[in-house]
Input
Amino acid sequence: MLGAVMGVLAMLFGGQRASAEKRGELWGQRASLFEMLGTDSTSIVFLGNSLTHGCEWHELFGNPHILNRGINGDVVSGLHERLTSVTAGKPAKIFLLCGVNDISHDLTPDSIVTALGALIADIREQTPSTRLYVQSLLPINNSFGRYKAIFGKEQTVRDVNRLLRPVVERAGATWIDIHGLFADADGNLRADLTNDGLHLLAPGYAIWRDALRPYVDE
Output
C-alpha cells in the first residue's frame, strides 16, 4: 500500500516538475506558490497572464479578498495545468483573461477559443458555485515595435473576442467586453495607456478597475 501511495505521489509531483520545466522558471515559482496558498469561499480570483500579473488588484480595489493568480507569459494550457490550485477552494468569483500569448504562438482564433471553452467548462465543473466572469482580450498596439510575435495580429484579437462571447454565454458565465475601453479610433491599444504596446500603465488599470467594479461588488 505504501509503495502504491508513493508511486502516485511520485507521478503527481513528477508531473508538476515536468510542467514547470516546460513553462519556465517564473511559471514554476508562481504556480508552486499558488498551490501552497490556495483559495477559499471568500476569494475573488483574478486568473490570467502578464496583464493580470502586472497589477496589485487587492490594493487597486481596496479589497483583501482579491487574489492575483496571473503569471507572465502564461497561455490557456498553462492555466489549465494549474487550475485546481484555484478551484479546489471553491472561490466566490473568478475573473478570467487569457489568450494573447496563444495568439503570439500563431494559434488560430478557433483553436484558442476551443481551448478557452474547455477551460471554462472545467471551471464550471470543478466549482459550480463560483461566479465566473470571462473578459475579452484587450487590443494591442504594434506601433511600439516591441513584440514581433504579435505584429499583424490585431484582427486575430478581434476574432477571438467575436468567437469567444457565445461560448462564454452558453456556458452560463458572464461575458465582460472591455476591449473597446482601451481602443483608439483605429481599434488599437491607446498609446497613452501603455509603454510597450501590450501591457498597461496605471491609467489603464484604473479604467479596468472601473469596468470590473460592478461585478466585483455585486
Q: What stands out?
A: The radius of gyration is 17 Å. Residues 15 and 31 are 13 Å apart (CA to CA). The chain has two domains: 1-37, 39-217.
